[in-house]
Write the C-alpha cells for this entry.
Amino acid sequence: MMTKKILLAAFMLMGVLGAKAQQADGPFRAYLYNNEYKVFMRLNLYEQDVVISWQEMFGQLPGFLAKEGNNYCWIITDFTIDGNKAELEITNDYGSEDLTATLTQVNDTVYTLRQNSGSTMKVPEKKSWKKLPTTLTFIKRK
C-alpha cells in the first residue's frame, strides 16, 4: 500500500515537472525579430527573467521590445497566456506611455504583435520618432 502511494506521488511529481519544463520552452520564451523596422523582442513569460542589458535597473522582466542601435525600449509589465496568444501590458522605459497588445504565435517561427489600445508604439529613428504599425510580424530567431 505504501509503495503504491510513493509511486503515485512520484508520477504526479514527474507530471508537474514535465509540464513546467515544457512550459519553460514554450512559445513565449523567444527572441523575435522584425527586419522591416529593425525591432526585436526578447521575452520569457514563464520565468520572467529577461534583463535589459543596457537598463539593468529594471531587474528581471517578462520581456521587452527595442530597436537596433539605441537604448530606448518598451517593457512588458504584465501578461496573460491563453494557448498560442499572450495578452501583454507594455510601457515605455520612461513610464510615460503604455498600451495593451496581443502577441500571437502563428506557427513555429512566425508571430504577430497587434496593438489593442493605449499609446501608439514608436521608436527612435534618425533623431526623430517613428510610429510602428499596429500589427507587426516577427520571426523567431535562435
Summary: The radius of gyration is 18 Å.
